[in-house]
Amino acid sequence: MKEDVQKLVDKGEMLPLMEEFYTIQGEGFHKGTAAYFIRVGGCDVGCHWCDVKESWNAEIHPPTETPKIVENASQYSDTIVVTGGEPLMWDMTPLTNQLKEKGLQIHIETSGAYPLTGTWDWICLSPKKMKLPTDEVYAKANELKVIVYNKDDFRFAEEQAAKVNNDCILYLQPEWSKRDKMMPQIVDYVMKHPKWKVSLQTHKYLNIP
Fold first, then answer.
1. For S-adenosyl-L-methionine, which residues are the binding ones (predicted)?
2. Does the annotation flag 83 for ligand binding?
3. For the domain that residue 17 is a member of, what is the CATH number?
């Protein structure tokens, strides 16, 4: 990457854009909501079951001017979801400031492993064992979404729930490839521990991108 471009990326004035698309939010509290997704490349958290591993290497995704991303997003929806990869690897301040100038609602989906930057209307925290969230993200998360791949993830979920704020909504979501095995266990767990809710990747059931 050229040095001048790298400087703009470091400041958040350009971002390694993997893809952007208008669809229906399929997961968590806002499921069923029309939203414009901005998927930013780059992630070193390294979940072995990640379904967008092509997002991990930021260098293969073209640095894109933040105003261009904002202009595209503002044409489609009032709700913008910034995801990755791990978007907090980059300074989100320029992106969110410009989206706010358009009067848009801005959500982020993050592992929380990096310092929180940007201004957000909704923070979906999906923590990973390999690289735990920062204290600030725990304190500000609106929803906690723990992916359940095996039985140990229930223990991990309770550890994470103890760290978030009292208003944070708690979700357990089966990892897609393990849904048939883990869903009965999740249902049973939620019925025994009703502070939790079940989150499904409804867009995959509905064949929505």
1. 49-51, 85, 126-128
2. yes
3. 3.20.20.70
